[in-house]
Amino acid sequence: MDERRDLIGLSRAELVAEMAAMDEPPFRAKQLWHWIYHRGARDFAGMTSIGKATRTRFAERFTLDRPAIRVEQRSADGTRKWLLALADGREVESVHIPEDDRGALCVSSQVGCTLTCKFCHTGTQTLVRNLTAGEIVGQVLIARDSLEEWPVPRGGRLLSNIVMMGMGEPLYNYENVAAALRIVMDNEGIAISRRRITLSTAGVVPMIRRAGEELGVGLAVSLHAVTDELRDRIVPLNKKYPIADLLQACRDYPGSSNARRITFEYVMLRGVNDTPGDAKALVKLIAGIPAKVNLIPFNPWPGAPFECATDAAIARFAAIVRGAGYASPVRTPRGRDILAACGQLKSASERARRGARGPTPTHEPASSSGLGRTTA
Ligand code: SAH
């Protein structure tokens, strides 16, 4: 058994405490931070600014382990997707989506998800636990490793933005997400500014303000429906935190302004939420909120109970939202050839293994680690 402590995910203060525990001066923590998060060091041996004897002592006590890469896929459009294995064998996904002058990494916050949104594939994966801060930061390190972007460049980065839009509900794992984002935002390391980080929530209303005040990151809200009746059905969390409460939390979101608009995500489901009437109701609902609306064509998965809205319906919907003065980009699907939709790669890999080894139990109780499983 490896009893060494993994340093990835420790705060600066925790690193200083580790140094104190082994009678090393506090500035060692600063040196380690620089090596780990600015230079991307994967072992202690190469940390040449630190004396050899100290490096050896570090290697005896600590590791710099990232999650293991189980699968790395590269799409023809440049999208990269990783299926990662955590220390306990559980799996999560992250996806890097490059654009001309930048690129966003979509990061997971939980193994699986408790929310069971009806159009979301991750919601069908009932086994859930929170990721640690180290497992969240580890996803960023792995992307930087793969993109060969160490030391962290000042500008012109392939990995310039972070979206907490992978598997899981980040506001049900707030402490670890916050600890991870503080590391990611630290200027002497990964140095991705809060202005380039977006946290996406299905609407955990009591945590929204806290995230805004403490982290100051951008907010995205998965709205997807304009009536409580429909939203209760497709985003069951709505029974606990209905649309009016959610929109009030958006109005109160600290730091939102025209320069820093709230993103409303709206998945286009054929015959479900895609009419001109829905679009008109949407712009009424968000009136007065500095906002943009991301229209996401539904990304189908095997057995999904929905179809994607037609191009014509999406165009009609977008025109109404734009006519009301909101930016309303239609998100073009990326990485379709590599199953880049949320949760798909993990399921495909589980199916392949089940096929090879016979059926494995799919229903295990969710962990009791403070995950806010909604009973609504
Ligand atoms: N739990 C958070 C973040 C993860 S989901 C949240 O709900 O916001 C990231 C986004 O992808 C959400 O807007 C989610 O509703 C959307 N999404 C999930 N499955 C989808 C699918 N099959 N097609 C299109 N969008 C999907």
Q: Could you please describe the fold and organization of this structure?
A:
The protein is an alpha/beta fold. The protein folds into two domains: 5-63, DNA polymerase, domain 1 (Orthogonal Bundle); 68-371, TIM Barrel. The chain is 33% helix and 16% strand. The protein is built from eleven helices and 13 strands. The chain has helices spanning 12-21, 27-38, 52-61, 133-147, 174-185, 205-215, 228-234, 243-251, 276-285, 311-323, 344-357; strands spanning 5-6, 62-63, 68-74, 80-85, 91-98, 103-106, 110-111, 129-130, 161-164, 197-201, 218-222, 262-268, 291-297. The strands form three sheets. It has a nine-stranded mixed beta sheet, covered by helices on one side. Strands 1-2 form a two-stranded parallel ribbon. A two-stranded antiparallel ribbon has the order 7-8. Helix 9 (276-285) links the parallel strand 12 (262-268) and strand 13 (291-297). Helix 4 (133-147) packs parallel to helix 5 (174-185). The chain starts with a strand and ends in a 19-residue tail after the last helix. Mean pLDDT is 90; it is low at 357-376. Residues 117, 119-121, 165, 169, 200-202, 222, 265, 267, 296, 298-299, 341-342 line the site of S-adenosyl-L-homocysteine.
